[in-house]
Structure formats: C-alpha cells, structure tokens
Design a protein that fits this description.
The protein is an alpha/beta fold. About 30% of the residues lie in helices and about 15% in strands. The chain has an 8-stranded parallel β-barrel with strand order 3-4-5-10-11-12-13-14, surrounded by 5 helices. Helix 3 runs parallel beside helix 6.
Length: about 350
C-alpha cells in the first residue's frame, strides 16, 4: 500500500518524483547577515530525494524577522547564498520551494540585529515568550499597528521576495499563514482589531492574505505559489472561537487563484473541511506514520504528505521508507543549536 507514496505527483507547475514532502522546519543555522551557510547547502543537498523540499521559514524583509539566525531573501548576498542551496538540490534531481515567513509581532527585538520595527495588524503584543539570542525565552516586543498604506506596501514586499526566491533558483514559494505569524495575525480576530478594510468582518480579515497570494502569483506565476494553514493551532497566542468561519472564506478565495497547493497542518481533523472548500492540491501533515500517510493518499484526501522530524534525523527518508528500513531518532538537544551536530551529521543508511 505504501507504494502510492512513491508515485509522481503534480502540484501546479511542480512535477514531483514522489509524494513525500520535506516540511518547513526552523533550524537556526544561518550566518551573519541572515545568509545561508555551507552547512545549510549540505543539509538540503542530503535531503534532495524528497519529492519536494519546503525550506525553513525565510523572512521576506528585515521587519519580517522574529527569531535568531533565521535566513532572509531580501538582500543580494542572501539570494546568492540560497542559489548555492538550490543548485545543490537540483543537481541531485530534487525540487525546492521557499517558505516565506513574516513573524510580525512574534518577535524579540534583540534577534533582529538591525533597526527594523516590529509591526502587526494591531498594537497587541503576543502573550507567548520567544527565545532570544541565547535561546532563553523572553517576552515579545510591543508591535506598531500598520497604517493602511503600509499594509499594501508589505503585500508588495512579499511579491518582491517571491521574485528574489525565483532569482535564487527556487521552484516556487509557500506563504506561511499559520503559527501566529503575520498573515495569521490578520486572519485572527483576537490579534486583528483594525477598523479599516483589513479588519473587522471576515471578508476584511482575509484580505491581506489573499492579496499577498495574488501578488506573489502575479510575480512568479500562481502555479508556483502555495500556502500553509493550521486553523485550530493556538501557537503564538492565536485564539479563535470559530476558525471555520475564517478559513472557509479564505480557502474559497484562494481556490480562485489557481495556486499550486495548500499545505494543511491538521490539528483538529480539518482535512475534510479543506477538501470541501478548496478544489486544488493538498499537502497534509499531522505527525503521520507512514501507513497513515499512504492511506490518506489512497483515499484521495490529499495529493502529498509532508514529514518534519523524520527528515531531520533521516536525510535519506525516502529511501528508508521505500526499503522498509528503521528510521533514526531525532537528537532533540540539537534541533536549534549545534552547528553541524544534529544537523548534517545524521548518517545515511547505505553510506558506502
């Protein structure tokens, strides 16, 4: 039954060799200037047998940074650094898209290393703590509410980031609309208290996300744009008494844009709901076992499955699943620290 995981799949303009997707995962290994390092090149190269790699969250602008040592895609040096990554993945026959992650209010100012502001839909701080440069969680900064004209400017920053990603050799981009980051902050009535066209009723709260998706599609082609959602996930101070009332209209609006896929982190049995409101391709992720993933594909509920931690400790995950081999365990102490340790030192099963 697991053979279905190894069948080719097409997501928009992305022709994939298999349906096993590497999920986006923050690893906190970028270098000075938020530029990808040689270790990052090696990390992604090792995992290029995935049908598709979705990169770690990457800030589209200086203001988009919230965490320590996350990479950017707004400078020429960052573009050049990512080009080394994409070249390495493509040389091994892989496909890779960049997740664009604007943290908005989920930010510790000391993590920024520049003078960019902390911005959000409304001047409401995130109640959750975020790790600072030393890894110790501290309170987040109070954000400044964006003016209406500034919201439109941020939309264009995402469009430029998509162009930059393509210049860096990425096969596409994914907009991070989950985990309490900027698009999620606009979607959520708890964090969005605006009274202009981007706040209040649901049709206004979904406007920013749909405008960003459309602008990125205009920039690089909608068939190369995906988006990630997790409607019931409370991470980073997200509270919504009725997420379906928000995400139903969002999905129906996105469905009109001809996107490559939606990427669902299914924390509350939302897969059926997404299928009912979105006719395009779906990638799903819910800490699935291999057999569970195959069953979802066989039922037609999704077109591909993303795996996170499995890919951390198993750079050859595709081959291990195909061979029915044992999967290595994650070194949890070095998910975010350790440089090469717990990052590029996991052995390949058949490494000569």
């Amino acid at each position: 039954m697991n053979e279905i995981l190894f069948q080719p799949v097409k997501l928009g303009a992305l022709d994939l060799a298999n349906a096993i997707i590497m999920a986006p995962m923050t690893r906190d290994r970028s270098g000075p200037g938020d530029i990808p390092t040689e270790n990052m090149v090696q990390y992604y190269r090792q995992r290029a047998s995935a049908g598709l790699i979705i990169t770690e969250g990457t800030q589209p602008s200086p203001a988009g940074k919230g965490y320590w040592r996350t990479p950017g895609i707004w400078s020429k040096d960052q573009i050049a650094g990512w080009r080394k990554v994409t070249d390495a993945v493509h040389e091994r026959g892989g496909k890779i898209v960049m997740q664009l992650m604007h943290c908005g209010r989920v930010c510790v100012t000391a993590n920024k290393q520049d003078s960019s502001e902390v911005i959000a839909p409304s001047a409401i701080a995130c109640a959750n703590k975020v790790p600072g440069p030393d890894g110790v969680p501290v309170p987040t900064a109070m954000p400044r509410a964006l003016e209406t004209s500034e919201v439109r400017a941020v939309v264009q920053e995402f469009a430029q980031a998509a162009r930059n990603a393509r210049e860096a050799g990425m096969d596409g981009v994914e907009l991070h609309c989950a985990s309490g980051y900027l698009p999620n902050q606009f979607l959520n009535p708890h964090s969005n208290q605006r009274t202009d066209e981007y706040g209040g009723p649901v049709e206004n709260r979904i406007r920013f996300t749909l405008e960003v998706l459309e602008a990125m599609g205009d920039a690089i082609g909608s068939e190369r744009v995906g988006f990630r959602i997790s409607p019931y996930n409370p991470y980073n101070d997200m509270h919504d008494d009725d997420p379906k009332a928000t995400f139903g209209p969002l999905l129906r609006g996105a469905d009109k844009l001809g996107l490559a896929y939606t990427h669902l982190v299914d924390v509350a049995d939302m897969l059926g709901f997404v299928n009912a409101n979105y006719s395009g391709s779906i990638i799903t992720n819910n800490n699935l076992k291999v057999d569970e993933a195959a069953a979802i594909l066989a039922d037609g509920q999704a077109q591909a499955i993303s795996f996170g931690r499995y890919f951390i400790s198993n750079p050859d995950l595709v081959e291990r699943i195909q061979e029915g081999a044992e999967l290595a365990r994650v070194d949890r102490d070095h998910i975010y620290t350790g440089e090469d340790k717990g990052y590029i030192d996991y052995p390949l099963r058949n490494a000569g």
